[in-house]
Specification:
heterodimer, A: about 325 residues, Rossmann fold, 2 domains, 7-stranded parallel beta sheet, 9 helices, B: about 250 residues, about 30% strand
């Protein structure tokens, strides 16, 4: 028996979210009185793999090979399902990020195992196995029972936190049977921005709305983001107008994020926008309209002109830093 | 080439959700039902491809799992421009059940491209597309923000952290699509609404299948504490609070 956790790597390195998943798996394994196995797919060296032990992984299966450099959902599903069989895993945990969302449902169908996505906490009951997930774009939560022996969960990002335990994990090479593989995909081009903080990973996000009036006014937003080590985001009208790239659109139909701090500048807070940001741990709103709905979800608010408040804010942060 | 779009019938995104019967079911009173926004974008893209010059796309079909009450939504898809529709006559109890029902229909009559929205705006599962591909044993690509067809060549843009990949793929496959696949959802014209009444909508009986998960109770989030207001003349106070109270900077 075991809890199996898929720890994704980016160019051979793990991000915080892998460690958060292992921490969550650790708590779950304790509740189920079982052990934790992590599975890593792709070329990751042993010193990086051993970091998973610091968060509680007891055994690490590593699957190496250049054919894993791109995400092929069918292929990754085959690998993880074989690892789950080998480890007799009762629960399989993935992140509710792009990769987890791509693989987890295939795993569910392949292993005929019930799945709950975007889970926000450890189970509230083990018999029956019951977890809580977000529904209606964060407007409500649902308690869901999984009825199958084996369960698959995707964990909402930044919903659990890190637990350091310092275990020595055993690393084992795992060679899956790939004989019944599907025709693959071919990546013909990759475009990646270098050196930018990725919105869905960011701990702090500074976001601008229509209140910024023009794409030429984004300077202070970018400066504030840089000072705070934050990613930049925007509301839907801003990306629809082409003021900012679509990748920055946060909201129901754009990115759903849950940073520790979300600073909304000139964003009124339409219900669709709130659906994308309401899981943020702290929300700061800066808006000229004191009736704006954003203040209903914000923890801290300033009613004022962004063009006056932002420079003051930048100045104040610089003072604190120096 | 034929394209199939899987549709979910969901409450309008501005709905204030309420529950009844001890918070076990959604209170449907006054809810406006719509095509799930991402499914609507997928449908729009399929129609654009079908209408492009020398298009290889001959037919665009929509499918949903739902009872009679889902019919208005599927008719809307026909009014927007889908050629025909299939409704599998069952309550969509969970994603596994839905994917299994659609897979049964598709196994008998395979499509070249199957499009699913990245999630439904009600259960936010992001599941049916991947499950369907696995049941059909065909490739799936998720987080797709563009679909292009040039002759025999099909390419997809897939979002990755901090960028995108352009993927070349052969049919059949499932693409799980998100924002960017088309810009604005197409709106049904008056002519479209009249035509939709004459378009074929077949009703298929479900196969025997069980849900393997069950929603037992809904909860609304705790009301938030009142927002702490800070004077625009004293932004230093905000920095103090973020540093010492919220401890986030």
């Amino acid at each position: 028996m075991s809890v199996l956790v898929y720890t994704e790597n980016w160019d051979g390195r793990f991000k915080k979210l892998a460690f958060e998943l292992v921490s969550y798996a650790g708590k779950l394994a304790q509740m189920l009185n079982t052990s934790i196995t992590a599975i890593s797919i792709g070329n990751v060296d042993n010193s990086e793999l051993s970091k998973l032990g610091h968060y509680g992984a007891e055994k690490i299966l590593t699957v190496k090979g250049d054919n894993f450099n791109i995400l092929d959902n069918g292929l990754f599903t085959t690998v993880i399902s074989q690892a789950a069989e080998k480890e007799k895993s009762e629960v399989i945990i993935l992140s509710h990020n792009n990769t987890g969302k791509a693989i987890a449902p295939r795993l569910s169908a392949k292993l005929k195992s019930g799945i709950v996505s975007s889970v926000i906490s450890v189970p509230v009951s083990l018999k029956p196995f019951t977890v809580i997930k977000k529904v209606y774009s964060g407007k409500a939560f649902s308690k869901v029972i999984v009825k199958t022996e084996r369960k698959i969960l995707t964990l909402a990002q930044n919903s659990y936190g890190l637990t350091e335990v310092d275990k020595q994990a055993g690393i084992e090479e795992f060679t899956p049977d790939m004989s019944k593989d599907l025709p693959g995909l071919k990546v013909i081009n990759t475009k990646k921005q270098k050196g930018k903080i990725i919105l869905t990973d960011a701990e702090i996000v500074v976001s601008g709305g229509r209140g910024m009036k023009s794409p030429d006014n984004w300077g202070p937003i970018e400066e504030l983001a840089e000072l705070l080590g934050a990613a930049t985001a925007c509301s839907r009208p801003v990306s629809d107008e082409g003021w900012r790239p679509h990748e920055e659109h946060t909201g129901q139909t754009g990115k759903i994020i849950a940073p520790n701090l979300y600073i909304a500048v000139g964003i009124s807070g339409a219900i669709q926008h709130l659906a994308g940001i309401s899981s943020s741990k702290n929300i700061v709103a800066i808006n000229t309209d004191k009736e704006a709905p954003i203040f209903e979800v914000a923890d801290y608010g300033i009613v004022g002109d962004a063009f006056k408040v932002l420079p003051e804010l930048i100045k104040a942060i610089k003072e604190v830093k120096s | 080439m034929r394209i199939l779009i899987c549709l979910s019938n969901v409450p309008d995104t501005t709905t204030k959700v309420k529950f009844k019967d001890n918070n076990t079911v959604l209170d449907k009173t006054g809810i406006q039902w719509i095509i799930n926004p991402w499914d609507e974008l997928a449908l729009t893209r399929a129609l654009e491809l079908k209408e492009s010059p020398n298009s290889a796309v001959e037919k665009v079909t929509v499918i949903t799992v739902g009872l009679q009450d889902a019919e208005a939504t599927i008719r809307k898809a026909l009014a927007i421009g889908a050629d025909d529709a299939i409704r599998i006559n069952a309550e969509p109890v969970d994603a596994y059940f839905v994917a299994m029902q659609i897979a049964e229909v598709v196994k008998i009559d395979m499509y070249d491209i199957i499009l699913c929205g990245i999630e439904s705006s009600d259960y936010n599962g992001s599941m049916v597309g991947g499950m369907l591909a696995e049941f059909l044993n065909i490739p799936s690509v998720s987080a797709v923000s563009a679909l292009n067809i040039k002759g025999e060549d099909i390419t997809l843009d897939r979002e990755i952290d901090g960028g995108k990949e352009i993927i070349s793929i052969s049919s059949p496959f499932v693409a799980i699509v998100q924002k960017g696949i088309s810009i604005e959802p197409r709106i049904a014209s008056m002519r479209g609404i009249i035509m939709a009444k004459k378009k074929p909508l077949s009703i298929v009986q479900p196969i025997e299948a069980e849900a393997i998960t069950e929603n037992i109770e809904f909860e609304l989030p705790e009301p938030k504490a009142a927002c702490k207001m800070i004077s625009p003349d004293n932004v230093k106070e905000l920095i103090e609070l973020l540093k010492n109270e919220a401890k986030v900077i």
